[in-house]
Amino acid sequence: MFQAKIRHTALLLFSLIAISSPAQKLWSLDECLEYAIANNLTLKQQNLSVKQAEIGLKEAQFSRYPNLNGSINNSYNFGRSIDPLTNANVQRNSANLRFGLSSTMVLFNGFQIHNSIQRQQQMLYASRFDEEVAKNDIGMNISNAFLQVLFAKELVKINEEQMTSTKVQLNRAQKYYEAGRVAESSVLEMKAQLANDNLSTVNAVNQELMARVTLFQLLELSPDSNDVQIPLIDTVPDAGVLSSGHLYAMYRSYAPELKAVQNRLEASNYEWKVAKGAYSPQLALSGNLGTLFSDQAISPNYGAPLFYQQYYDANGNVIGQAPVPNIIGTETTPFGDQWNNNFGQTIALSLAIPIFNRYSTQAGVKRAEIGYKNALLSKEIADNLVQRNVAQAYNEYIAAKARYEASKASFEAQEASFQYAQKRLDEKLISEVEYRIFLNNRISARSTFVQAKYELMFRYKIIDFYKHGSVYPGQH
To answer: Where in the chain are the domains?
Structure first.
């Protein structure tokens, strides 16, 4: 009855797992990494930062060109004002409509425009390298999570095999008890062991589920409809690195984090130059086009000529005639006529020389200098951090490799010892208790070996990243 309950619990657990994911997609590690590049939200945010930097560079480049602005000004004057047509003081109401087009181009301002462009260019480079850093971080997290899923699956397999072995021992103990060859305590002991094995299996299944949740949360996917494809892993390749210094020298040529801080150092240097440029005079060329319509512009209104004035030569002969105008009133000059009559152009060359600006220029230069010194320190800190990380990764790989070799040898020895114990049990030369000790030692050695194998794989993945500068397929 007890054994039936254990079997029922285990079957129910695994059947629920199977039912919950009837059509799971199996993902390889390379597929996970490629999907992350295209869909990870953090990487999408970083890509938007790159686009912002591109806009900043384009804005700085366009500051070389002249601006162009149009204006329309409609005004009403009441009482005493300046006549826009004669510039005389008049005492009357008027309405004026002005049109203007203006442009200004900076010819020289202490190379501030040039240095601003160079600064934005360096910031764009830094933003792109930041994107690479984010890609690498996501890739390493996914690789680690993927290997954790594989490790958890192997633990499930080990615990299932443990349960199967315990069931065989329980059946044998039950037969021996019924035959009067062993005491009832042997059967009870095996039932208790089966219950413990069932609990261990349930814990292993839960661990595997949580490992999948962690992996597919990184991919923004549901773990219910996705699982990993188990690769064939016989051995872990050797990293082929002589020393941590050798590895650091290899990674330094790729390291996007070091390139990013170098670009920011260059950007802060150009920012310093921009601040110094404020000491320089500024030379600018400007031009304006404008015209005016006013209701005070008056044109005569002509009627039929009063008469025609004739002109004579010296002999008294008529040589021509001209009409004498007949002004019968006035009217506001038409818009088209005023547009042409009042149209004017201006071109100007201006030089602004800074003399005293209440310490703002000096403060800007000093702030930029501090920013440059801070960028120097950031570069040194980043270089030291990368060097420490590389050295730590190398040492952890060496330690993981030694642990893998030792656990492999231990597992092989425990496996041989277990096989020998199995034969002795079949020949009734050892007891179930003694056999159980050999079995537990084998299971423990196997679990340790599997853990060491996947740890070494992850450490190898880190070393491979430092060797080639990327964890993504096709980007080495």
So the answer is: 298-328
